[in-house]
Design brief:
Layout: H1 26-57, E1 72-76, H2 87-97, E2 102-108, H3 126-136, E3 141-149, H4 163-178, E4 183-189, H5 196-211, E5 215-220, H6 229-237, H7 245-252, E6 257-260, H8 270-287, E7 293-299, E8 304-305, E9 308-309, H9 315-329, E10 336-341, H10 348-359
Parallel strand pairs: 1-2, 1-10, 2-3, 3-4, 4-5, 5-6, 6-7, 7-10
Antiparallel strand pairs: 8-9
Helix pairs in contact: 1-8, 2-3, 4-5, 7-8, 8-9, 9-10
Amino acid sequence: MGRQAAPRAGRIRAGDKGRGGRTWPTTVRRRVLRSALAALVVLLLPALAAETALRVNYSGTPSGGTHTRDRDALWLGHAWTDGRKTDADVTALVRRLRHTGIRDLYVHAGPLEHDGTLPESAYPKARWLIGAVHRQAPSIRVQAWLGDEVAPEKPYAMHLERQATRAAVVESARQILAAGFQGAHFDLEPLHSGDRNYLALLDALRRVTRARHAVLSVAAHQIDPLPAFHSFWGTVTGHPKWWSQAYFGQVARRVDQIAVMSYDTMQPLQSLYGGYVAQQTSLALEVTPESTDLLMGLPFYHENRFGHRAGAETVPAAVRGVRLGLSRTDAGRARFGVALYVDFAATEADWRAYEEAWVR
């Protein structure tokens, strides 16, 4: 037999198997590969451009004076209200806070039940804590940190579309203010951008806190890093995560304090995380009224999991980002601060970075 002719384009080669065992011509395979690469480029280019913008956003020098306004806050875990802490712990806490800008403590007194109620057994030592703090640091406000998961993303949890549930949350706020707390701090997650039931709840809560000269504060989701990004991400993952800037402003106008949870950002490097925080700070400043305290969250915890890299989301990177965003958008803003999450996971390095870079 003579030599076998080399296969020409379009002729089936051994091993070129497609779905169901069928074989694909070489030209078809190349066309599919090119299409796949083109699609990948289309998807990656916006992400690469966004990450490049964040790195650029982290450059520059913060303006002088972009330091604490003595309106900072600290989230405290449940051990402070369930009996695990002692007078000695309060003394150590007050000593720690003495030369910082912290004015508010968000003390975990929940969680709320899914129907919006709050059993008094959840915070048996609240009155002791409030009294102990005020004896040693009368200028520090103690707020009750209340939270829960919410529908529709968590269908088994709290349903804000139910009027009875919202009424129960309002009653829970009355309850904790009667216990001596000077404010109610709500962390309801995951809240989808545009949720009108949440706005209705805030309106009702504000009437209660104002009547008692108390503070209404909330932990807020991050703002779309790209226009309508929450819609895209929600479609792809089922978890929108971000709020539109307009919705953030609607929430901010209904409260006395709004603390951005500016961590768990999925950023892999300190420079990108810091640039992201700078962007978030600017976006939040643009829509938060002067009458509302805006606080940017600092990651006082160290975990490595999806969405959070401890080596990237550091206190120094966050503080630098906050100062850059403040410098570029509203350097003289008075009602501004940072919020430290969370006391039980913080290290000495976290506290030192906060004090050196922000308090000074």
